[in-house]
Write a sequence for this structure.
């Protein structure tokens, strides 16, 4: 009799519920893993784009310095030519 009362009091454990929770966790873990992979891929793409942009910026800066030197070298001559032209105006 004591044995029978104990069975009535014990809750039943549903194995389906445990399997669903396990599969849900596995699915969540897989989703999280895929999210992390996607984030890392996106980070790699952004880093590559940043490096390319920095390289292009370096080239543009080099060209700007070259043009600045040319301008500074030719500016005195341009001013002198303008002065001579102004002097020779009728």
């Amino acid at each position: 009799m004591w044995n029978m009362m104990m069975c009535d009091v014990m809750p039943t454990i549903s194995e389906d519920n445990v399997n669903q929770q396990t599969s849900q966790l596995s699915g969540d873990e897989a989703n999280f893993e895929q999210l992390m992979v996607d984030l890392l891929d996106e980070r790699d793409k952004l880093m590559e784009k940043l490096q390319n942009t920095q390289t292009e910026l370096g080239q543009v800066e080099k060209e700007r310095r070259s043009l600045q030197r040319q301008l500074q070298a030719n500016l005195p001559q341009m001013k002198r030519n303008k002065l001579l032209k102004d002097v020779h105006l009728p």
About this structure: DSSP finds two helices and no strands in the chain.
